[in-house]
Amino acid sequence: MSIKLFVGSLPWSANDEDLQKAFAAHGKVLSAKVVTDKETRRSRGFGFVEYENETEATAAIQALNGSELKGRNIIVSEAKPKK
Question: What is the pTM (predicted TM-score) of this model?
């Protein structure tokens, strides 16, 4: 079962590749996506990263929550299911 992480406070310049690179050091990243506005296609300042297992996801949260990505301190936590 895969584990999805929420990544907040992303810099506007961050893209999917930046997320992939930052999180790959902590395990096998299945997907990394910066959420964009449908009309303007600009970043909305958050994204999601999906890991293959919980151990890797937990390691990424511990290592990257509060860390710097392209000049901003990011927030990393387990994603909550949509309501």
Answer: 0.95
